[in-house]
Amino acid sequence: MELIISNSNGVPIYEQITEQIKFKIVSNELKENELLPSIRTLAKDLRCSVITTKNAYEELVKEGYVKNVPSKGFYVAKINKEVVLEEQLNKIEELMDKAVVIAKMNNINKKTLNEMLNILYEEDK
Known about the structure:
There is one protein chain. The chain is mainly alpha-helical. It has 2 domains: 13-76, Arc Repressor Mutant, subunit A (Orthogonal Bundle), CATH 1.10.10; 81-122. The chain has 5 helices and 2 strands. It has helices at 13-26, 39-46, 50-62, 81-105, 110-122, and strands at 66-69, 73-76. A two-stranded antiparallel sheet has the order 1-2. A hairpin with a 3-residue loop joins strand 1 (66-69) and strand 2 (73-76). Helix 1 crosses helix 3 (50-62) and helix 2 (39-46) crosses helix 3 (50-62). It is elongated, with a radius of gyration of 18 Å.
């Protein structure tokens, strides 16, 4: 499993691992009941501590993306994609709320915000 970790972006490594694995699950790159690398193997591959990968897996279990089968390992859990989509929409809404507050504080109009959003949205295509 290929994950890209950055030590310089300010996001804790366990969160980077968690978010990338969640993305791979939601995008079906990782399939339901697929065995994930062991905590130690993932730590070795990513050159990070075992505690970091353990924390990432625990977070994934807590959020329902992964299940821990004792003595066997961590497996991709069955997820409800509608619930996941709703969670992601809530995150986007929170970020957009912050952007609107900043824009209003700086007298940036809605048209300019829309232009920025359109540019950012089309950037990766």
